[in-house]
Design brief:
It contains five helices and two strands; from the N terminus they run ααααββα. The chain has a domain of 89 residues. The chain is mainly α. The chain has a two-stranded antiparallel ribbon with strand order 1-2. Strand 1 and strand 2 form a beta hairpin.
């Protein structure tokens, strides 16, 4: 009985890791977010392992199951590479540009939205109302003046 064809399995696992590591790990740093060089390097290492594993799978004396699983894992790995290239370099450019979005530190335009109780709340009202203390026992001589409003924008559809 022949040994396990570890290069093909390691190449397959590394290519799946390369596919899922960009949105979960490498997107956190600008050096790997701007261009996914780390993922492409991992895919290249996986391709070398897959090549070695395919050569071992079709070596003389290997079982038929090895000759079936080897190409199937290689095909799935290259499909993952193709999907990664498509998503990272093609589909990412389909997002609309955010050229008119407010930037960090920029003054937001005044707007009015409804709160969870269906009451209208405007940004200018939040900036002019004094901050009420959470507990009445904390009331000092006068309520604290407003300091600002923190706005968090989520890009997407609800």
């Amino acid at each position: 009985m022949k040994k396990l064809n570890w290069p093909i399995w390691l190449g397959f696992i590394l290519s799946i890791f390369s596919f899922f590591s960009y949105p979960t790990i490498f997107v956190n740093w600008a050096v790997t977010r701007d261009f996914p060089w780390a993922n492409l390097l991992l895919f290249a290492i996986a391709a070398v392992l897959l090549f070695v594993g395919l050569r071992r799978a079709f070596a003389p004396g290997r079982r038929l199951i090895s000759k079936i699983i080897g190409p199937a894992l290689a095909a799935l790995s290259f499909l993952a590479l193709g999907m990664f290239i498509f998503v990272a370099f093609v589909a990412s450019h389909w997002l609309p540009p955010s050229t008119n979005a407010p930037q960090v530190g920029q003054k937001a335009p005044d707007f009015t939205l409804t709160d969870t109780n269906n009451k209208p709340v405007s940004l200018s009202a939040l900036l002019t109302q004094p901050i009420e203390p959470a507990r009445p026992a904390m009331v000092a001589e006068s309520p604290r003046p407003p300091r600002g409003v923190l706005l968090i924008f989520y890009r997407g559809y609800w």
